[in-house]
Specification:
The complex is a heterodimer of chains A (256) and B (646). Chain A is α+β, with helices and mostly antiparallel strands and 256 residues long. Chain A contains 10 helices and 7 strands. Chain A is elongated, with a radius of gyration of 22 Å. Chain B contains 19 helices and 22 strands. The chains are: A alpha+beta (256), B alpha/beta (646).
Chain lengths: 256, 646
């Protein structure tokens, strides 16, 4: 059942690097991460790669395999022809640390800029009551394993370093949507989504949804509804008039 | 409190930080400890071996046990306590089991105030599901990804605390900072108390030292010493080994939980966890003859609690008050042994497991709703559609019950200033952990350690032990050793690691024999020699073979503990099964095997008596049940006995 595959792995650091060819034994049922581990056990023991659970649950082993952003632990070797060259490179949107490992601190910075869950006032622990149907919308987004494949793929930042400052990326715009749809969150998030976190940069090409290993409908279920809420707010004549007259638009206006 | 952002370097170019509390480990226990320490006004560092949010807690699937009584109002802490003790075959530290059962509901509710979104009951409360060994539906859950919900919630709570600090000081990291991809290799003491710790940053290979009077170990388990395991590469027993080398003690190391249901095929995914929720939600185990074999494996101590016919077992799902539970929901050790026996008797599946079938028990849409990540996992990794066909499963090394011996209330070890919480601490789960009791353990004892560490620091009244500079220099040398031995042509650490895993898997696995364990101890000595001389390639920058060379030392020390204790305990109980001593023995119940370090790379073991259980806790059980576990003279304080006297 086993055969020898032709692997081409990017080796290097932030300054220089190159694709290195490795012949690698492949056995039945194996995934790309198994082959990377075999290389470590044989001829490339210092090959740097991130991984943890090896079951598609932690989102650590994100890389680009034949140009497609993938989790190495969920990419079966039988999806390639036996004579196909398998090229493995680090995520392109983030700076390389070494080999297949990139500096993903961009994501942690963005995470910190999104205001956290604002608990409802006067509701004690143990007294939270929510209906299943109401939590399900946000639960879909909480399936996110933070593999950053969507952040890596989104063309707003993939080849536009200059947009990184103003754009939180699909993962964190989805986080805003998640909190906005949380039945008991008490903060207003819609204006900030547009003005501070760059929701307007997203032109719904759905690349993020396509690469999501958790199959979260990021664009359809998070980003488009969030855009609609922002637009409703901005162009609703009553809200517009209210804002003009009373200079409000803060917490009181959280429309659901 | 120390002041913010004191960073300088010493003569060896080691970056130095000052903190009040350093939490080693960024899983559930570590993050909950850090949140508490910060709440008590302590400047806190969190050391994360991987990226923040990737800890092994994400792998917990089924849920978090807490007697909230949402699904069945008869549930309360006493029932939970009873189930926990029963599950651990009464070897548990009863005080820990008591605190855990009492405090778990509060800890779960608190998670909602941090933003967690659990599945709901019809009246809008947190839904609770059935699990092995729990009398009532008790596990708060989110589909089958509860661990992810917990880790993300705690991670996001830390972020919210950082946002508060940013508002107050202009610095997100003023009071709580996460050190990503950082591994601690040494703890420092001064005058017998904790003074700090030492390690390296993976990304650069640079060294870092933390001066801190209190350290919380929350490093998780030891599964990477085994070939078939549900554990990730991080689970190398770091906390266990650091504690030993610092002079603390480990208990219960002979007890390893082999989760009954890991994937068995294809080979590359062997060991990956299949959640117990599959059985909790109706899945059944069958052998190659199609027989539901678990009915043949109900041990005497559980005879009254489990159904003896398929009909009764099936009725239980809809009418739990008038029927006994299906034997598929026996505690994990029982189910794992049963599967092992079936396979050994030649009634296994083509790939050496048994069948776990939910496809004939639930509608496809129900399976997709309740077990989405299992469906995904089998579809993507094994080409199996669990809504249409059974899974093949077998035991996988999952959890270590043993760990650092701690004070139940504060989590402090024998070493002043050194605390431990979660999987790397010992006692709470006795000889076998119930599913769902791990996530609650993390929250309850994570918080207690954070509080314990804060209280300890307050008690120092500013007299902080100072790291001895020669110790710090020795730590640098030790960490660089794999590079120095390289010149002498040693082995590839990945190869030595495989050898260690094979040894433990084959010789100190699920079923144990004296001669095999003696052989294991000899082999471990040999592997220890090879470990000391492994050669690493490359430099210090994100270099996995250097990291493994350092982790190997810890795995070896911990493996020695497991093998020594397992050889010593001449009975079978929970996660310790002896082929040569197949019966549980009441005279062993009250004995703890306590391990401490003997030099750098060896351990010694002594026996210690358990503290007798408080009479009011004994009274929770019926005398007839206790007699199955305890010796006669231990039960004098029970109400039945008192009644007879009166």
């Amino acid at each position: 059942m086993s055969y020898w595959a032709h692997f081409r792995v990017w080796r290097g650091d932030s300054e220089k690097g190159e694709l290195v060819d490795y012949p690698a034994e492949v056995n039945e049922g194996e995934v790309v991460l198994d082959i990377i581990h075999r290389l470590q056990q044989t001829e490339a023991q210092d090959l740097a790669v991130r991984w943890n659970c090896k079951a598609g649950k932690c989102g650590s082993c994100s890389m680009e395999i034949n140009g497609r952003p993938r989790l190495a632990c969920m990419t079966r070797m039988n999806t390639f022809a036996e004579d196909e060259v398998v090229t493995v490179t680090p995520l392109r949107t983030f700076p390389v640390i070494r080999d297949l490992v990139t500096d993903v601190s961009f994501n942690y910075t963005k995470a910190r800029e999104i205001p956290s869950f604002a608990p409802p006032e006067g509701v004690e622990p143990g007294e939270y009551r929510m209906q299943q149907v109401d939590v399900e919308r946000s639960q879909e987004f909480r399936k996110c394993i933070e593999c950053y494949l969507c952040q890596n793929t989104c063309h707003v930042v993939r080849d536009h370093e200059e947009n990184k400052e103003a754009f939180a990326g699909p993962r964190y715009l989805m986080r805003i949507a998640e909190l906005d749809m949380h039945p008991l969150d008490s903060a207003d998030r819609q204006t900030a989504a547009q003005e501070e976190h760059g929701l307007g940069y997203c032109n719904i090409t759905k690349c993020c949804t396509e690469v999501c290993p958790e199959h979260i409908k990021i664009t359809d279920n998070a980003l488009i509804p969030l855009k609609e809420r922002v637009v409703d707010r901005k162009y609703d004549p009553v809200v517009w008039l209210g804002n003009k007259l009373f200079r409000r638009g803060e917490a009181a206006n959280k429309n659901r | 409190m120390t002041t913010a952002q004191q960073v300088h370097t010493d003569d060896h170019d080691v970056e130095i930080h000052d903190y009040d509390v350093v939490v080693i480990g960024a899983g559930g226990a570590g993050l909950r400890a850090a949140i508490e320490a910060r709440a008590q006004g302590k400047r806190t560092a969190i050391i994360s071996k991987s990226l923040f949010g990737k800890a092994h807690t994400v792998m917990a699937e089924g849920g978090c046990a807490a007697a909230m009584g949402n699904a069945n109002p008869n549930d309360n802490w006493r029932v939970h306590f009873g189930d926990t003790m029963r599950g651990g075959k009464f070897l548990n530290n009863w005080r820990m089991a008591e605190l855990h059962a009492k405090e778990a509901p509060q800890r779960v509710w608190e998670m909602e105030t941090y933003g967690a979104l659990f599945d709901r009951t019809k009246d809008g409360k947190i839904s609770q599901r059935n699990f092995g060994g729990h009398t009532y539906p008790r596990l708060a859950h989110v589909g089958d990804r509860t661990g992810l919900e917990l880790i993300r919630t705690l991670q996001q709570k830390i972020v919210s605390l950082q946002q508060e600090d940013f508002k107050a000081t202009g610095d997100y990291e003023a009071n709580i900072r996460v050190f990503h991809e950082t591994t601690i290799t040494d703890l420092f003491k001064a005058d017998g108390a904790i003074a700090g710790c030492f390690g390296y940053f993976r990304s650069t290979g640079r060294f870092v030292r933390f001066n801190a009077p209190a350290i919380v170990l929350a490093t998780g388990g030891v599964g990477k010493s085994y070939s078939v395991t549900s554990n990730s590469w991080e689970y190398t027993g770091d906390g266990h080994a650091l504690a030993l080398r610092a002079g603390a003690t480990l208990i219960n190391m002979e007890f390893l939980q082999f989760h009954p249901t890991g994937m068995v095929w294809p080979p590359s995914v062997k060991g990956i966890l299949v959640t117990e929720s599959v059985r909790g939600d109706g899945g059944v185990l069958r052998n190659s003859e199609g027989k539901r074999f678990m009915f043949d494996y109900i041990a005497d101590v559980f005879k009254d609690l489990y159904a003896t016919t398929e009909e009764e077992a099936d009725r239980w799902y809809t009418d739990p008050d008038n029927n006994r539970r299906p034997p598929e929901l026996l505690p994990r050790d029982e189910v794992a042994r049963a599967i092992n026996s079936e396979v050994k008797a030649g009634r296994g599946t083509p790939h050496g497991g048994v069948f776990l079938d939910v496809s004939t028990r639930l509608k496809p849409e129900e399976i997709l709703k309740r077990l989405p990540s299992m469906h995904h996992q089998f579809k993507e990794l094994a080409d199996v559609d669990i809504t249409k066909e059974p899974m093949e499963v077998g035991p996988t090394c999952h959890y270590v019950m043993g760990g650092v011996e701690v004070d139940p209330d504060t989590g402090m070890s024998r070493v002043p200033g050194l605390f431990a919480a979660g999987e790397c601490s010992g006692g709470m789960h006795g000889s076998n952990r119930l599913g769902g009791n791990s996530l609650s353990d993390l929250l309850v004892f994570g918080r207690r350690c954070g509080a314990g560490a804060s209280e300890y620091i307050d008690g120092l009244a500013g007299r902080r032990p100072a790291v001895v500079e020669t110790d710090a220099a020795a730590a640098v040398d030790r960490a660089l050793l794999p590079f120095t031995t390289a010149a002498e042509g040693g082995e590839n650490p990945f190869v030595v690691h495989l050898e260690l895993q094979k040894t433990m898997h084959e010789l100190v696995g699920i079923i144990r024999k004296a001669d095999e364990m003696e052989m294991a101890l000899k082999k471990l000595e040999d592997i220890a020699t090879r470990t000391r001389t492994v050669a690493v390639q490359g430099d210090r920058k994100f270099n996995p073979n250097w990291h493994l060379a350092l982790d190997l030392r810890n795995m070896l020390l911990v493996s020695m503990c497991v093998a020594k204790a397992a050889l010593e305990r001449q009975e079978s109980r929970g996660g310790h099964t002896r082929d040569d001593f197949p019966v549980m023995d009441a005279d062993w119940r009250h004995v703890l095997l306590v391990l401490s370090a003997l030099g750098e790379d060896n351990v010694e073991m002594v026996r210690k008596e358990q503290i007798p259980m408080r009479p009011d806790l004994l009274d929770i059980f019926e005398m007839d049940e206790l007699k199955k576990y305890f010796t006669g003279e231990e039960l004098g304080g029970h109400r039945a006995d008192q009644g007879e006297k009166a």
